Amino acid sequence: MSLGIKITDGIHWIGVNDFETHLFEALWPLPKGVSYNAYMIVDEKVVLIDTVKGPYFSTYLDKLKSLLPVGKTVDYLVVNHMEPDHSGSIKVLREAFPEVKIIGNQKTADMLGAFYGLTDNLVVVRDGEELSLGEKRLVFYMTPMVHWPETMMTYEKSTGVIFSGDAFGGFGALNGGIFDDEVDVDYYEDEVLRYFSNIVGRYSAMVQKAFEKLKGVDIKIICATHGPVWRNDPAHIINLYDRWSKQQTEEGVVLVYGSMYGNTQKMMEAVAAGLVKGGVEKIRVHNISTSHLSFIIRDIWRFKGLVLGSCTYNMELFPPMKQLVNAIENRMMVNRKIGIFGSYTWSGGALKELQEFAGKSKCERVGPVIEAKSSPTAEDIDRCVELGMNMAKAVKS
Ligand SMILES: Cc1cc2nc3c(=O)[nH]c(=O)nc-3n(C[C@H](O)[C@H](O)[C@H](O)COP(=O)(O)O)c2cc1C
Asked: Could you list the residue ranges that cross the membrane (predicted)?
């Protein structure tokens, strides 16, 4: 009995679900789990596309063995991406199938040596190179820095299936169905954006380069390494990715505040009231101390307006707000409207750092800037409402 899931003739999903890991990359929470998708092509040659994270190898092996025709072995393993959530089983796979040839590019080969000491039986491919498997034919496209240097995609010509690596992938284990027409796409879409904005977003320019390269390739099914297989409407995820990587945003405002005793929170609430007065419907408020950074980054990636407010802590920005500001800078976000406010009791410090951040950012500033001493005065509150109203105008323009 086949333990894999058929995608199309001769191509199968042999991935696994991970419901145990709390933090992906030891950073990103996985409330819905995550899948490590791997694929198998059975033709005259038998080919695996990527593996799975090490602890899940036996499940992966069971699946591939269930699909392996009698008398055949695994001829090739294509490695589209070397991050260990996909490459973690390569060494044991090689032990199970010593004759398997590993296909990658020159950078993949370097990493195979550095991670796993594997240096023999490698096939190094170049951009656009093809490999016949019998009826099927693979084409390898180099798509570097989406989001590692060795990342590439593999396209199967006869079926129009593209194995895209982490591109188009997202968090969320596959709960029964694996295809976009079998699952609740909305349930996964937020998690695709959270994956994109936190992990891939910094490399948006390289995503756009990959799109350029794939122009004219007739993509019928997208098989990413995480999340659903897009067979019903691949254009949907392509369009989202295109928009996100061009940093095109939606009308709406994200409000993030850091407050220990509620004074800065009052300012945030006044800004939010101003946004509502100005007609903004999509408002996302995050308490920096309780929302995980990855959800905040996701929302900031999506919406046009961003307002940051922070109390002062030991002469500086409130520590978790500092982390957020660093994360935003690291993602090289542009094309947004930014408003800021702060609070202090003696020396100040938070607002100064927010001013520096906003000044360096490639985003348009929206005023006024408000700084409250301890508790906001009535005048401070009025100016916070004014900031909200100005931000509303800015995101609607
Ligand atoms: C542990 C701690 C450290 C602080 N450090 C500073 C500081 O270095 N400079 C300053 O002006 N205010 C400092 N403050 C005061 C707060 O920034 C100020 O009271 C602010 O209004 C608190 O806002 P909140 O009620 O939103 O937490 C500190 C407060 C705390 C509790």
From this structure: none
In this prediction the ipTM stands at 0.99
Residue 383 Cα, ligand 1 centroid: separation in angstroms?
Answer: 21
Instruction: Say how far apart CA 3 and CA 61 lie, in whole Å.
Output: 10
Domain ranges of the chain: 5-245, 253-396
Instruction: Report which ligand 1 atom has the smallest distance to the Cα of 261.
Output: 25
Number of Cβ within 10 Å of residue 216's Cβ equals 5
Its CATH architecture, for the domain 5-245, is 4-Layer Sandwich (3.60)
Residue 43 pLDDT grade (very low, low, confident, very high; cuts 50, 70, 90): very high
> Rg of the Cα trace of the chain?
24
DSSP 8-state assignment for residue 100: P
| Homologous superfamily, domain 253-396 | Flavodoxin domain (3.40.50.360)
Assign residue 376 a region: left if phi > 0, alpha if psi is -120 to 50, beta otherwise?
beta
pLDDT in tens, 238-274: 999 999 999 999 999 999 999 999 999 999 999 999 9
CB 228 within 8 A of CB 180: yes
pTM (global) more than 0.80: yes
pLDDT score of 1: 79
Pocket of ligand 1 (CB under 6 A): 259-265, 311-315, 343-349, 374
Instruction: Determine which residue's CA is closest to atom 4 belonging to ligand 1.
Output: 313
| Integer Cα distance of 183 and 236 in angstroms | 14
Confidence (pLDDT) at 2? 84
What does the alpha-carbon distance between residue 274 and residue 288 come to, in Å, rounded to a whole number? 21
Residue 365 has φ and ψ, to the nearest 5°, of: -85, 140
DSSP character at residue 199: I
